[in-house]
Predict the 3D structure of the following.
Amino acid sequence: MRRVVYNGERLGLRDVTEADASALHAVYGDAAATQHMPFAPRSLSEVAELVAQALEAAAAEPRRLYVLAVIDTARRDVIGVARQLAMLTAGMVEKAASGNTCTRRLGGATRSCTRRTEGPQKASAFRPGMNAVPL
């Protein structure tokens, strides 16, 4: 499983954990915070179930759902959640399995990509965007 951790100057992102359920309930359970959401405020047990589903999704291969805790870096508190659904086509999964990889640095445009040419040990660099697997 590939873990997500990003620490910016003011905010950080990381995979949610079971310990985040009560902090996330402060958001998901608040009527004012959810008034423009497509769901009513949720109970602590409902939020705990969402966290359990996020942990299950994080362990899946290929990983299609990213549920990240948003962290206030000054206070080290969980202040929200970010969800991203990675849409992969069969061709993208095949490329990923064949060894085509891309790494992106959050907060910047830097990206390095490699593509296997022969066997598992040989790789050649190629320009970002060519045969890249979207994350």
In short: DSSP finds four helices and seven strands in the chain. Confidence is low (pLDDT under 50) at residues 97-135.
